[in-house]
Amino acid sequence: MRRPILRATLAALPVFAILVFLGTWQVQRLAWKTDVLARIAASEAGPAAPLRDPPEPLAKVRATGRFDHAREATLGVEVRGPVLGTHLLTPLLRAGAPPVLVDRGWVPLERGAPVARPEGEVSVEGWVRPGDSPNLFSATDDPAARRFYTFDPPAIGAALGLPEVAPYGLVALGAGDGTLPDPARTLPRPTNNHLGYAITWYGLALSLLGVLAAFAIRGRRDDTR
Prior knowledge:
The protein is of the alpha/beta class.
């Protein structure tokens, strides 16, 4: 019976090592994600920092400039209650720096209600959104109609006739006073499921040890008969 137990143990060792490695990796990811969430919470609670290039992703910043409403576009589709809407994307022209695309907030696709379009110099508080790249599952943009579904600043800027734009964007933050566009209220929080994943991998490793132990005990009992 020793040989079957030995063979089973040798076969299980690499599987056990992989399960422990995956569990440990998830523990490390948990520490990293917890730190990211703590920094986001601290940024949200504190004052907005002046926008500097290059900015830290998801940081709360403040940018000053002038909205180019003549080049506004829409980004994505979002349903709120029974209303189908989108996000209003407007270039913010800055002195001495490339324009930055600002997601000013949600608006209904059927523009029945008035949309605020401030003129002159404005100060925009928001969080830094990194650019995306389209993939096989991305909806097709309609540059002629200025409707975009992937936040790709260089591509959007070129479609809007801007020779140069910042490679990131701003998502405007606000209290939401009932006017349109309706801005974001908080900074985004990435999901943090790493503790559950770590428990799963470590649990599978312990289960494997339990199966081996049961196999060995059963083998010894068979040998004593």
